[in-house]
Amino acid sequence: MLAGRDTFTVTEGSVTYDGRDLLALSPEERSWAGVFLGFQYPVEIPGVSNVNFMKAAVNEQRRQRGLEPLSAGAFLKLMREKMAYVEMDSSFSGRGVNVGFSGGEKKRNEIFQMAMLEPRLAILDETDSGLDVDALRIVATGVNQLKRPDNAFIVITHYQRLLDYIVPDVIHVLYKGRIIKTAGKELALEIEQKGYDWLIQESE
Amino acid sequence: MEVQLITNPEGRLQMALEAGASAEYLVLQDGTGAAARECEVAYAISLAEGASLKMVFLSLGGTVLRNRLRVSLQGRHAACDLAGICLADGRQEMDYDVLLTHEVPQCASTQLFKNIVGGHGVTRFHGLIKVVPDAQQTEAYQANHNLLASDTAKAYTQPQLEIYADDVKCSHGATIGRLNPDELFYMRSRGIPQAEARLLQQLAFSYEVLEKISSPELREKMQALVEQRLRELA
Question: Partners of B126 in the beta sheet?
Fold first, then answer.
């Protein structure tokens, strides 16, 4: 819904992002405004290579900011640099977007795309689901390298495990669609030890 | 091998490949010349022993284009590879009618015809692979895939096999579909505008045919023409 998929209808409430009504924007406009959604199940696009996909995306973002498109050389250099963040082999750039990628490779590709687009707000939806420890570490390292004072990450997870690698500034506990608890990073450890029940009781 | 370019042909074209000959043709119908008016082209093609033919057809513009292909594989180990793209919109009609006959054993043929139809455009594909009783160890494949880009576009497809031999590998397949909405959304969520995302998908759809063109220069040129045409396609 935050990314603008038309299969969802908002029946009530509002989403304000940077003073703008996010829900009034098309998916591409949200991206231009700096919103990035890391998909839980990234889509395969046969026939569209990773490099062409990213070139179209990056140059459109630049156009929206009044910048010239990158030259082929500069683009490839940027791509190589960002692929290194997630330890992605350069052979992936010529392959169809996510086609034949393993679960871990797809998630790494999400982080790679995020690195290319440099969003101001990234929402990573259960990026840790289905990842082995190595892939998890790579994904987390990528996220940590992209963290800056002027951007934010919302990392949605069920597990403490990811938070060993990505240390959050703030933790929100969501229950039945509402935030029932907000605290610092120590909350994650507390939940790991005591579970969620006490939070639910506290909220009710 | 040099790729021979045939632009906006009309009438009857006869091609007889002698034993061991090989040729590659690229046929372009771009809506100018003969293709500017109602246009029918009949190809009579025969291949002798060991001959090999590749033909790529690009029907990118015109009013009514009818392409009638009659291909006869007459000598053992002849190989024929046919591929084509139609991009039709407005009130355009583009037809491909292919009869490919395996007259002798041990020949191979492939057909890949793809159509993208928008506006009130119509495409028709009628393809028949015929394998005569003696033509054992034939390998013949035929595919026709159609992408509808508007609610009023029409694509008709009629893939057929007539096989009288019993030791053959033959298959045919046809699909009619729309652009995948999940793919579109994924691209838009990365900031690619809807029109551009559709174009990328349509180019990807066309690529399978374009990549058959052996000459890199011609392939690039044709890809640019297809892209230009797709940008206009409503």
Answer: B97, B158
